[in-house]
């Protein structure tokens, strides 16, 4: 990409005629990135690695970087990355989003906590967007300039995910996914998370740390949430009584179920049933 040199543009302050919930704060392009980054960011960033490669470390976990791929940086987590090994540099296009945009990015599926880096099949679409960025910037700020950049950046991230080429997960991530899949099936039963961690070759401390990074809530809370979600479904979709639902979702004590349901949902089971159930909610 000889036609463009190292470049950075902050656009967060520019007015939008059609404000996006995921307006981009800054855009940067580095054709020959040689420096090693070790930093805790205050923003959420997408880095498109267009050529070259190296390593990406997040809180002590390593991913191999080989273009074309995307790596992300999350607020507060220690990130280390850069060209190394057989590469002395890489080509990077990066998008920076302010922290306040994170909930919207997550809701749209553009932030995946358990997938901080991914390979893409080719850089064709990304390079097309890069040309479009250059064209927009060469025309200079005008009406709709920032709006177009917001949508263009969103499209770049979306296309990278749609064009994802799955890379093998590191062993710890693979183990957490396997444990989470088991919890999704067996959440009604008593679960020994320490035993599950040992079965998958994880120490208790590693399991807790990686589970928090990938899932975001403690294991017991995750299982409880699945129980309550199933209880909500049964309340709405069946004629089962509250006591029956309590037993069906793995609660041995109906009174504890009632207290827990109210704590998690803000209403009693009967209130939830009356609010959400309709004549079409269950088969006649």
Structure, described:
The structure is a single chain. The chain is α+β, with helices and mostly antiparallel strands and 284 residues long. It has two domains: 7-165, Jelly Rolls (Sandwich); 171-276, Homeodomain-like (Arc Repressor Mutant, subunit A), CATH 1.10.10.60. The protein is built from ten helices and ten strands. Strands 1, 2, 3, 4, 5, 6, 7, 8, 9 and 10 form a ten-stranded antiparallel beta sheet that branches. A hairpin with a 2-residue loop joins strand 4 and strand 5 (61-66). The relative contact order is 0.11. Mean pLDDT is 86; it is low at 1-6 and 280-284.
Number of strands: 10
Distance between the termini: 65 Å
User: What's the pLDDT, averaged over the residues?
Assistant: 86
Estimate what percentage of residues fall within beta strands.
15-25%
Largest sheet: 10 strands, antiparallel
For CATH, the homologous superfamily of the largest domain is named as Regulatory protein AraC
CATH top-level class of the largest domain: Mainly Beta
Can you tell me the CATH architecture of the largest domain? Sandwich
Any key phrases for this structure?
single chain, 284 residues, alpha+beta, Jelly Rolls, Arc Repressor Mutant, subunit A, 10-stranded antiparallel β-sheet, 42% helix, globular, disordered C terminus
């Amino acid at each position: 990409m000889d036609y463009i040199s190292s470049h950075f543009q902050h656009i967060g302050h520019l007015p939008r005629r059609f404000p996006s919930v995921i307006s981009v704060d800054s855009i940067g392009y580095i054709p020959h990135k040689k420096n090693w980054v070790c930093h805790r960011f205050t923003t959420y960033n997408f880095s498109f690695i267009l050529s070259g490669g190296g390593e990406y470390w997040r809180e002590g976990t390593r991913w191999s970087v080989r273009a074309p791929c995307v790596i992300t940086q999350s607020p507060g987590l220690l990130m280390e990355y850069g060209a190394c090994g057989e590469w002395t540099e890489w080509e990077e296009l990066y998008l920076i989003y302010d922290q306040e945009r994170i909930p919207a990015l997550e809701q749209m599926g553009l932030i995946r906590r358990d997938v901080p880096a991914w390979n893409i099949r080719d850089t064709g679409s990304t390079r097309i967007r890069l040309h479009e960025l250059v064209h927009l910037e060469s025309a200079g700020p005008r009406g709709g300039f920032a709006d177009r950049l917001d949508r263009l950046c969103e499209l770049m991230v979306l296309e990278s995910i749609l064009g994802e080429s799955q890379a093998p997960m590191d062993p710890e991530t693979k183990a957490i996914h396997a444990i989470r899949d088991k919890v999704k099936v067996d959440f009604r039963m008593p679960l020994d998370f320490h035993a599950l961690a040992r079965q998958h070759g994880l120490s208790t401390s590693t399991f807790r740390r990686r589970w928090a990074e990938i899932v975001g809530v403690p294991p017991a809370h995750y299982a409880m949430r699945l129980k309550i979600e199933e209880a909500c479904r049964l309340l709405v979709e069946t004629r089962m009584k509250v006591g029956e639902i309590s037993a069906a979702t793995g609660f041995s004590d109906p009174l504890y179920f009632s207290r827990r349901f109210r704590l998690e949902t803000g209403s009693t089971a009967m209130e939830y049933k009356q609010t959400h159930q309709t004549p079409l909610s269950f088969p006649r």
